[in-house]
Input
Amino acid sequence: MATKESGWTTVSGLRAASLKTWERGQLLCELLEPTGVYPRRRPLKSPNAGELRQRFGEAKNWVSELHRAASHYRIESKSIGHQSIGANDVPQAAWFDTVHQEIAFLGKGREAAAFTHLASALLGNEPQLRPWVLARPFRLAALGSESLAAAKVARWLVENREPGIYLRQLALSGVHTKFIEKHLREIDEMAAVLSGTVTPRSSTIKSFKLRHGFKLEPDTVRVRGLAETLGAPGGAEDLEMTVQAFASMSLAVRTVLVTENRTNFLAMPLMPESLVVFGAGYGLDGLAAAEWVNACELVYWGDLDTHGFAILNQLRSHHGHVRSVMMDRETLEAHREFWGTEGKPSKARLDHLTAAEASLLASLRSDADSPQLRLEQEQINWSYAVEEIARACGWDLSTVVE
Output
């Protein structure tokens, strides 16, 4: 609040103090629920008698600046300097008699009026949301008129627990699925206030649906295989099915290859008695539930980074016989020119890796070769990749028909 040169509080310093209060939402809340803090006194760091005597001209200018800006506050002064240069009234504090004055001083009158209007409309419909408005004044301001629709959804959720429908089927005037996805957090908070429950910490679309009893879209597994292997209608070689359907499959399959990259999945040559499965990151529920996979050779190809090893570890926790391919030191060194950086490495404890895999993981985590090193699947030379996969799966590539 004080100038660097003099140490006395300037108008800009006073405004900075008021702005902090505004940014905490306290001024907006004061409009709805006065706390008795007004008239508010804001102390000013001012010159003492010695400074007044030595820097009288500078002090005079400082006083003038405060008075020129005092259209929204009044100044409390104290008479000092009687025995040296004569009595002088020196500002000691700025008083804001009302919250409206302090808001006007900040030039926030328009924002405050809009907030008051929004709060009045929202609380007119849902008086119980007053605690939410006081806790989230800027969230309300950001929502604008959409706060009314968010409150409508929150009320519906409270009155219709476990609806057992898809979120898309929610039929409320002025509300659509994209709106709910956009405002998950606010709707969750409002519903918690209306129902007297604790606000959830997570507001992903999946957790939202689970929490409020909506149906979830079924998890699916996507596979590719030769037409004679899949036996699908129309000779289809690329199928997507529910986890339950995948788990109940009965096919003449000897080898299952899991890859995390969609393009690799699509480009992989199809071989007799083999399936290629699109792993899609950590979404391996389909494979986990398929007990028939235990009778097959299971090979996993993931990114060569900490998350790739974490996914491998997850898969091996269900199917202990899974083998990794191109997740080794040899592949890493052979593609040094394509090394990249992993944004947020996984720190999870991985107990299902082989000694060689665990050693390479430890090297990645220690930044021994390069900080946060990773080698993405798509950076590996395709000819190299196909040969390594054929070797791991026991495929005879000479039988591949282009």
